[in-house]
Amino acid sequence: MSSGILTTMNTGLSGIRANRKALEVTGANIANMNTEGYTKQRVMFAPNPGGGPGSGYGVCVDDIVRDFNRFTENQMTQTSEHLGTLEEEKKFLGYVEDAFQETEDAGLAFALNSFFNSVSSMASNPANLNERYNVVIQTERLGQEFQRVDKWLRDLAADTNKEASALIDDLNIHLTTLSEINEKIRRYEGTGTPVNELYDERTNTIRKISEMVNTDIIENEHDFQVLIGNTSVVTNNEVSRFEARVDNMGNIRMFIASDRGGVGVDVTDRIVEGRFKGLMDVRDKFIPDYLDQLNHLAYTLVQEVNRVHQQGVGLDGIAGRDFFNAIGSSAEERSMAAANISINPQLADNPIRIASSSDPDEIPYNNEVAVALADMANKTISGLNDQTFISAYGTLLEKIGLDARGVYTDHQIHSDFYTQLEVRRQGESGVSIDEEATKLMIYQKAFEACARVINVSAELLELIVNLG
Question: CA 315, CA 148: separation in Å to the nearest integer?
């Protein structure tokens, strides 16, 4: 009989131990309810091994599991990849819009209008030197506006390279951290130590990596792999390093470094999502497109104005001068038109050389060339798809606006979806204070009941001993 009572006491003791562990886990959940990325843990009870059916060996903690939904986490990872792309595009397109900001008295459109207005004023009074000096001033301001926007865009492209290089450094840090976490998981799991917090840390690190580049995870019982650009970069505790290398255009490329002294693998074009992809889109797609249109506008303006100006004569009676400094027709020269547009220094030094008349022999000189130059403000140009200079510039502004709005809208949609996923994850894996408070009461009552079982068993055992 006493052996049965001892068994009952051991059963109660097992319940105390199991429920005490459950109280510890519940307390940890409550303590971490505001910890970002924390996954609530749950105690799994099981009958104590060692006896057959009905043997009453008590209870044990079989496992402490994370309430982790892999499907939700995969969706969050995929969404964060695309959000990373959109974050960089949104940021830099905002900077691009700043470059093209137009007001009533500033901006490239204002400078274009001011230039043609000054020529129109000169056409009304071609002999007036003040009007001619104003043409020089407005032309110089127009050139400065082209150069300002051109430099702004090129500086933004340079900034994307700087950010891409810094991102690669951060990526290496996170990959190293991930390999170290994998090593800790392997080591601690080998000793039977719970590692749920390490799994949380690994999940959070993967999410940070996915914001930077598209990431695939392959996990089984024995291996944990991270693939970036379809190339394995982390296998358990082994990690590859990325390098930022500069190509012959001065642009950053992402390479997986070779561990044998080779050239490594260029994975730049394999990165199809994440902040790195967004930076590459801005550098290689958006900015070159805008620069092409800006340079084409500047080149066409130089060619068309020079063509008309060469047909006229200045007040000094000399014909055939360029109004703007000539820009060559090679692809390289045309690609720098906005940066190099400037008034012919001969005209800037002496504005009487600005052509206004069509006939060197007519005294006084007529204003036909000056009028023709002024009329170019409203003339459609075949080289600009039959648009005027102002409307062609407006087309560029519209293109930038459409690109920006598209990115802003896409970013908002995916940001809202990510928020929904966070809410879902919180419901599935986050800590609910009400739920944990209920568990506290349940485990406390169970603990007290098991303690009561031990007390009653002790009283019975004492009674048996006293009975002799």
Answer: 32
